[in-house]
Amino acid sequence: MSENTGDLMEKLVALCKRRGFIFQSSEIYGGINGFWDYGPLGVELKRNIKDAWWRDVVLRRDDMVGLDCSIIMNPKVWEASGHVVNFNDPLVDCKKCKARFRADKVFTVIAAEGENVLLSVGAEADDEEHARLAATNAANSKTRRRLEDHAQKLVWTVFRADKAPQGRSNICPLCGGELTDARKFNMMFKTFVGAMEDSSSVAYLRPETAQGIFANYKNVLDTQRIRPPFGIAQIGKSFRNEINPRNFTFRSREFEQMEIEFFCHPSEADKWYAYWRDERYKWYIDLGLKSDKLRLRPHETDELAHYARACADIEYSFPFGVSELEGVANRTDFDLTQHQKFSGKDMNFFDDETKERYIPYVIEPSGGCDRATLAFLCEAYTEDMAPDEKGVMQARTVMKFHPRLAPVKLAVFPLVKKEGMPEVAAGIHNEAKKAGLASFYDEKGAVGRRYRRQDEAGTPFCVTVDGQTLQDQTVTIRDRDSLKQDRIAAAKVVQYVQDALAK
Ligand code: GAP
Q1: Is 255 helix (H, G, I), strand (E, B) or coil?
Q2: Helical (H) or strand (E) element with 159
Q3: Pocket residues for ligand 1 (CB within 6 Å)?
Q4: Using only C-alpha atoms, what is the Rg of the chain?
Q5: Ligand 1, residues 89, 257, 304, 373: which to mutate, most atoms within 8 A of Cβ?
Q6: CATH class of 3-70+218-377
Q7: What is the CATH T-level fold of the domain 395-501, as seen in this structure?
Q8: Domain boundaries, the chain
Q9: Separation of 184 CA from ligand 1 center, angstroms?
């Protein structure tokens, strides 16, 4: 990670805490790794993202319905899905400091010139190239200079902890100690249901919302007037005991997913896969992620899960690297067939027009709500210059959220706390709230400071009630991004904001 990108992440994390977007979970007790809380602004931002998703994939369509399943399900679900046996990460431990790592994320980097080893360190990274970068960044300045001087002549050897060549062990990125061989670690959180704590009462917190949809596929078919092609959508918490939670909320142990399972005839699966892949990619762009930071990456054949026929990741260029926001996969009839086998229930759909009986294929667009929130936060973070009350240009930090996602849509200020201005401003504020708009009333401090606070919160519009308002019932409305101030009738403020949100 270069210094600049590290800086950006640090600034964003600081802003999230300072303004109440995201807090560390149980912070007063020192926190708990991999768990996060959304503060008053964060919860609105995240809810707006979930609402936008629900509106676009359920409410605006005729071929989708929603579902809300329990987090703990019969453990047979996870046997059928393969999670009990296969949901493993490779894990290594440091023999010296006892730190634990995901084996596929720790690398040993060796730079040698003939017999002469200049650098030999462990690094945590997502791939070999980043591991090499992390290792050289971690090198002290003297070693770094020597590496730079000799770079052309050096032989670089980089190997992953679970793919170390015979006889070579890996190096701990924290203390330089030796790492154990990789072993499998099941990522599902276990718990017990009922009073007995024995093997018969073991249950799991769901690691994905998808299986609740498959388990209810028959219920939905039998109770709704719906037939393939159709989809079921669900938003909900999932839990994974990640070995190395990191990059703020990007990889957490408790997170929210937004998943669709779209059921179709096998002969139409390729068509629907391409459809959903493109739809989902476009969704992020429409809500403000710039296309040059978004990437649609089809999986290589050797990356595909054994049951998947095609898969593409929607990736975003975060300050810490390009990483997955959402995966869109053609899961074939794998899940329904497995549940048919394990439950003994018939998962076929009988088409009474063609008289055909078949198990539908499933296209799955599966996104992470926290990752989407983090991407929208990264995208929104902007440092620019804006004039203060005296017209002097000052640096400001502004969160340029799409108005639909902004936690607060409108802030209303009386210019001064007298001459009836607070009453008029409070009237506009209350009217906005009655219309369902998240509005914030602020009468404290210089108006320039109030603007700055709203810029940091990402509020797209600030309305100021001033002396002229009392004469002609007009107010100024300031656009967060262009800083343009329009004068409009006080009575038109709510409509003005609603129009902007509908764009
Ligand atoms: N049902 C398929 C499934 O769960 P996945 O790729 O494992 O697929 C889907 O997860 C999405 O869930 C990811 O693209 C990501 O956005 C989100 N996600 C997965 N693990 C996560 C974690 N530890 N923290 C935050 N989000 C995560």
Answers
A1: strand
A2: strand 155-160
A3: 208, 210, 240, 242, 251-252, 255, 257, 259, 324-327, 364, 366-368, 370-371
A4: 27
A5: 257
A6: alpha beta
A7: Rossmann fold (3.40.50)
A8: 3-70+218-377, 88-185, 395-501
A9: 19
